[in-house]
Amino acid sequence: MFPGFDKIVEERIKNAQKKGDFNNLPGSGKPLDLDDNSCVAEDLRLAYKILKNADFVPPEIEIKNEIKKTEDLLAGMKDEKEKYRILKKLNFLILKLNSMRSTSINFDVPQQYVDKVIDRIELKKGNE
Known about the structure:
The protein is 62% helix and 0% strand. The longest helix has 21 residues, at 80-100. The protein has a domain at 58-128. By secondary structure, the protein is an all-alpha fold. The N and C termini lie far apart (49 Å). Helix 3 (59-75) packs antiparallel against helix 4 (80-100).
């Protein structure tokens, strides 16, 4: 994309919201129909339905779920050594997710807490 393009798009969306252009759209206030497969090619619909019924989850989604669980675990942790070990696991999962993508680096998930860990390590080394 062009530099600044995202900002222009965001500005236009905000202006449209202020003018009320998004009010009273069809389906507004109703739950999404997540079973609508009209965007899926007809020859793939049966295969997708079988995968969905078998509770198949794409690997990227499995990793995202594991990242979320690891972040939640990390948030409630007090032990610094264990926290550092879990942090390394979290960053590995993020690196793994990012390496699976075939999109722009702009969509990569940033590694978490790296600056905080580095600051703490440097602080501890300075106190020794």
